[in-house]
Each structure stands twice: as structure tokens, then as C-alpha cells.
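User: quick one, fold this
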Amino acid sequence: MDEHKGYPDPQTALMITIAALTAVLLVTLDSTIATIALGRIQSNLAASPEQITWVLTSYLIAAAVMTPLAGWLADRFGRLRTMRTSVFFFTLSSLGCGLAPNLETLTLFRFIQGASGASLVPLSQVLLLDIWPEEKHGTAISAFGVGTLMGPMLGPTLGAWLIEYISWRWIFLINVPIGVLSLTGFAVFAAGHDKLREVKFDMRGFIYVSVALTAFQLMLDRGQLLDWFSSTEVAIEAAIAALFGYLAVVHVFTTADPFIKPAIFKDRNFALGTAFMMGVGIFMVGAIPIITTMMQQLMGYPVMLTGVVSLPRAIGNILTVVIAGQLIGKVDSRLLMIIGLSGMIGGFYILSGVTLETDPWTMALVSFVQGLGSGLMFLPLMMMVFTTLPDKFKNEGATLTALMRNLGGAVGISVIQTLTLRDLTASQSRLAEKVTPDNPLVGWRYGDVDFTDPLDVAARSGEVARQGLILAYHHTFEMMFVLSMVMVVICLLMKRKKETGASRKPAPVFMD
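Assistant:
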């Protein structure tokens, strides 16, 4: 260890990095791998469509509640101790999920998974910045980016393979050896290195934030199923989220030592970066499920082909994460972020023109282009946010950015699916108005259509439904195209690193 600077020796830092990245992969892989298995789990455990959604909802609620708490736990009990405990319970709950005999047990262990895994990604991020000297930050963040972005990208492909050739239970059981590897690394190479702080726990603030997040997450998850505000349940959840959200904001600004420190938002890069992270969550996290659904349900791709087509996204991520790690510090991070956004924008532009006959190679190209963009966008954003943030706010800042990204993803998935389904109704109505006996285009396209034959009418109605759905997808991707362009403005408002004194101040908080 370099005692003067407070960094561990390079060999120890490398092994801690491997343990941290393994923990990150553990959580990020699980965040998407379960989605593709819901149908198989539903049939195997004899669950209804409404019941099976709790497999995802329980995980998301627990993660939303525990993510903002992770910063306080890291300050009070030590970052590494918190991470070791989280990996242990995540691994144990993964084993419980894989062996669950019924839906109730699976839902319980999924809740424990979400709660225990919430701290691992944000705390790993600041850990890597603190165990490596500043000249190695680009490489460290590149490695973190691979772990963070690879999990969600590989999840659908790996999940499809496990479901097809082994069992849905292995999408959870595969976490066990990964968790044991991570836990062993932390136990051997990072034991006794925690830096503790005496920090008060704001119970009232935590309750306000937790209730608001829980109600908000429930509203998002249940809204589409219950037709949103026509449902009394969803209206109550929205009212509770608004009330406790208001109480949380008032509490933050009127309490001496609140659960969330408002002073953290005085850092312009952090405030803008958090907003950027939420926007990215909406159009990047929210886009993946709808692209997958479109390929499977509309284009007729089997599960395995859908997974293979999604794989180039991970390949693009790896390429640009490595490139970005070498360019950070040499090129304006804002420029790298804008170039990365261009990849996302280009992908949505292509998606806004797909048809029912679009081949898998085109969809794979979209995945690759967007993978390139997200990898190049993510690492410069992390460096822009955390190099200007004071040391005392790093744990809290990491958890808040993770929380906003997760909330953005939850909002994106719910809103995008709702808008797509409602646009589908309008698109089908417009198309159906044109399918009439006196329309010459109908005769030109389908020949002699017998509108008195029920089979003929059913065939035309099915085609109208398919064309209406592809139109709805077009409109959704056009909306995400516009939103991703708006993110460019936020990039330009952020400060360059050289405008601050952060680069002249090494700030390791790993060691006492």
C-alpha cells in the first residue's frame, strides 16, 4: 500500500476491483435475466398473469427503498463491510429463488435480492475511484462500465439459453458461484480496510422517502394492468406517493441533518448528471423491453434468436467502454457524451422506420450502434459527476445517481408501454377506416376481398392489427429519438473537469 496517498498496493487494488466488478455483474445480470423467463415461471408455478408480475415488482420496490439507504450504511458501517454483507445476502437469496417451490417463496426471495443488491452498483463505482490513483481512473471506470453495462445486455441472451436448454431456475442459481467468487475476493483482499464515520440516521426522512418510492413504484408497475387512474388502487398509490414525496422535500429543507443532504445538489455537474442519468434510464432502459417485445410478438423471432440479435449491444458496449477509458482526460468528456448520444439517436432513427419484414441483421445493427453509444456516453458521465463532488458526498452521490437511473428506467418502461398500447388503438382505428369495399387500394393489395366472408374479414382485421402495432412502435421510437436529442443540451451545460480543482486533489477514502 502507498501510505502517503492512502491507496492499496496495485495487486490488492486489482483483486478488490475484480471482486467489485463480479458483484456488479451479479446484480446487473439479474436485473434483466428474470424478465425473459416470466412466461416459463408462470406456467411452472401455476400463477396468473397478475400474480407473476410480483416477481419483478417485489425486486424493484426493495431496490428503490434500499438504494438511497446504501450511502448511509456505507458511511456508518463502512463501504466494504456493507458490500460484503450485500453480496452474502444476494447470493443466499438467489439460491432461495432457484429452489423456490411456489410463487410466494419466489416473491419473498426476490424482495431480499432487490434489498441486498441495491447498494452494490453505486458503492462499487466510488470504491474503484478511491482505490486507484487519479491517473488510473479512466481504466478503473472503464472496467466498472463493462460490469455495469454487460449485465443488462447479456441478460436476455444468457437467460434465453438457460431457459431453452436447462431450466428457468438456473437464471437464479447461476448467481451462486458468481456471488461466492465476489465474496471470497472481498473477504481475502479487502478485510479490515473500512473507514467508518459517525453519522446520525434520519428515521423520519427515510420513512418519507421509502413510502414515496414504494407507492410510486407500485403505481408504475400496476398502472397499465389496472388502466391507470380509472383504478382506485392506482389513484391511492399516486396520492400516497405525492403526499410523502412532498413531506420528504419539506423535511430535507427544514431539518439540520436530513436523510438526503440538499447541499449535494450545489455541485452543478452532480445535479445535471443526475438529471441526465434519469433521462438515460427512461430512453435506454425503457427501450430494451419494448424492442424485445416487438421482435418476439410482432416480427415472430423465437426466444433464442431474440437473444442473439440483442448480443451485439453488449459487443458495442465493450468496444466503446475500452475506448472511452483511454480518451478520458485527453478529450472533453462532454464531446464524448454527445458522440455517444449520437449512437443512441441513430439507433432510434433506424427503429422508427422498421417494418414487419425487417430482417434480424438490421435489428442486430441497431443493437450494435446503440451499444456503441451507451458505452461511450456512460463513462465520461461518471467522471464528470464524481470528479467534482466533495469526498463526504461520494457514497450518497453514487446511491442517488443509481436511484435516479432506476427510477428513470421504471418510468420509461411503464410510460413507453402505456403510450405504445394507447397509440395502437388510435392507429388501428385510422387504418380500419380505410379498409372498405370501395377503396381501390384494398383491392389492389389483396385482390378480391369478400367482406361478407367472416374468415376473409378476420384475416384483414389481423393484418390491420399488425400494421397498427408497427405504427405505434414507430411513434414510440420517434418520441425516444426526440428525448435523446434533448439530452445533448444537458451535456453542454455541464462543466469541464479542468474548470474545477478536483484534478489537483487526490481524495482516497478507502483507508483510515
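User: anything notable?
Assistant: Residues 499-512 have pLDDT under 50 and may be disordered.
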